[in-house]
């Protein structure tokens, strides 16, 4: 798809700039130029398409759909996990969504299933994984993320932890959005505006991810990390998750790094676990959730999700 740009970047680096073919700096620069344009083109197309589609699933509609299923817990968990894929979510929306779900009487376990699935199974990351790694890796990502969300939500629900939700949550009200259906032209305009705004916000994370990937591409030989983070290292997935939890990056910024980690010998399950830890258990989200969850419940939430990611990483290292 991007062979034309690969040829142009090689011509620029090796012919116009005169770098030697064996130069690590040249390899890193060519990788950075190639991946920057490729990633941002893919980002623009994917974000626009997904933003347009998810305009049909505003938060109020999501809350209403889950509220209808609150009497059927298992179906509610599945629906919450599926809705998490297609509905908008970022760390800044965690608190109002949580409050809205509690206000609607949605069980705590189902609420957590949604809050786990929405950031973990990131629709932009899903689209980019499909295009960069193929449909099998994308399918592994979506299935594992959904299973983690459902199982974690069911465990949290059975633990009866409502008393560890901040009391103020039950007295809060969230605003009601207008349920008027927008025109098609408005959906397209809003999707285009959102795409530009989001790229403006995340471009630095994407550039940093590509930059780190470029340095790895230039200096880290293929299979160089296999002895440390390959399938044979029993601690690789656990360490990757521990490193990923405190980090904060948009999923689009992590994927170029995931690509280079796998090229350098890191097992795919380990790389996916790292990406999930960064996107599902980011530090900003934990700080915001502390406003509605008491420390014990927040720690249990992070611990259960983290263990789920670790288990999934090891499982897919065995089968892939």
Ordered list of secondary-structure elements with their pairings:
Layout: H1 3-16, H2 24-54, H3 59-68, H4 73-86, H5 94-103, H6 108-120, H7 123-133, H8 135-158, H9 184-219, H10 226-229, H11 236-244, H12 251-263, H13 268-280, H14 283-289, H15 295-319
Helix pairs in contact: 1-2, 2-7, 2-9, 4-6, 4-8, 5-6, 6-8, 6-13, 7-8, 7-12, 8-15, 9-12, 11-13, 11-15, 12-13, 13-15
- The overall pLDDT average reads 80
The tally of strands reads 0
First-residue to last-residue Cα separation = 26 Å
Tally the structural domains. Answer: 1
Report on this model:
This protein has 320 residues and is mostly helical. The protein has one domain. Helices cover 73% and strands 0% of the residues. It is built from 15 helices and no strands. It has helices at 3-16, 24-54, 59-68, 73-86, 94-103, 108-120, 123-133, 135-158, 184-219, 226-229, 236-244, 251-263, 268-280, 283-289, 295-319.
């Amino acid at each position: 798809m991007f062979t034309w740009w690969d040829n142009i970047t090689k011509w620029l680096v090796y012919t116009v700039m005169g770098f030697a073919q064996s130069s690590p700096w040249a390899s890193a620069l060519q990788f950075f130029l190639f991946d920057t344009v490729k990633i941002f083109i893919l980002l623009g197309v994917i974000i626009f398409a997904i933003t347009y589609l998810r305009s049909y699933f505003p938060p109020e509609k999501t809350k209403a759909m889950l509220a209808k299923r609150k009497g059927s817990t298992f179906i509610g968990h599945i629906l919450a996990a599926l809705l998490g894929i297609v509905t908008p979510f970022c760390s800044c929306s965690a608190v109002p969504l949580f409050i809205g779900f509690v206000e609607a009487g949605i069980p705590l376990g189902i609420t957590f299933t949604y809050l786990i699935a929405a950031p973990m199974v990131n629709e932009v990351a899903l689209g980019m994984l499909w295009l960069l790694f193929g449909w099998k890796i994308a399918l592994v990502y979506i299935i594992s993320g959904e299973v983690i969300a459902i199982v974690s939500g069911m465990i949290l629900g059975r633990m009866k932890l409502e008393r560890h939700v901040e009391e103020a949550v039950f007295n809060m009200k969230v605003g009601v959005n207008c349920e008027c259906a927008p025109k098609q032209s408005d959906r397209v305009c809003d999707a285009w505006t959102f795409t530009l705004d989001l790229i403006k916000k995340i471009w630095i994370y994407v550039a940093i991810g590509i930059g780190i990937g470029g340095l790895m591409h230039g200096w880290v030989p293929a299979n160089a990390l296999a002895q440390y983070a390959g399938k044979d290292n029993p601690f690789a997935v656990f360490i990757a998750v521990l490193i990923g939890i405190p980090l904060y990056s948009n999923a689009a910024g992590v994927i170029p790094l995931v690509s280079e980690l796998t090229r350098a010998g890191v097992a795919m399950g380990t790389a996916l676990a790292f990406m999930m830890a960064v996107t599902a258990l980011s530090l900003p989200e934990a700080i915001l959730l502390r406003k509605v969850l008491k420390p014990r419940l927040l720690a249990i939430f992070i611990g259960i999700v983290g263990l789920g990611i670790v288990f999934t990483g090891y499982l897919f290292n065995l089968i892939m």
